[in-house]
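Thread title: Can someone regenerate the structure for this chain?

I was given the following input by a collaborator and told the matching structure tokens would be attached. They weren't. Posting the sequence so someone can regenerate them.
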Amino acid sequence: QVQLVESGGGLVQPGGSLRLSCAASGFSLHHYHVGWFRQAPGKERDGVACITGNDDTTYYRGSAKGRFSIGRDNAKKSVYLQMNNLKPEDTAIYYCAAAHYAVWLLYKEAGAPLATEQYDFWGQGTQVTVSS
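Best answer:
Regenerated them for you:
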């Protein structure tokens, strides 16, 4: 069965860095793309970044570009999110999710590679708190 498990969350100072990891099992990394999303209290879940399963192409939302970096470790079957220069507004529960490439491609062609509704499998999330 498809399973995603996030880890690496915690409390960090503003301007600090944190590396999140998403361990994937039960599916082929060649046929699924993995995205990172976050949800703050009282707000909607929002896409942060995603990486394709076939060629490791990455996509970021504007607020994450330049500070965050998504990558894949094929040996460990995991996807990470490196977050630098963290700000208090980055505080949220961070989730990883997987989307089948055949469906994801339609959203990419429509200009929405980070659309939440296309991702079928989700992890339980890991808390990230940025505070002094």
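The CA atoms of residues 69 and 82 lie 5 Å apart.
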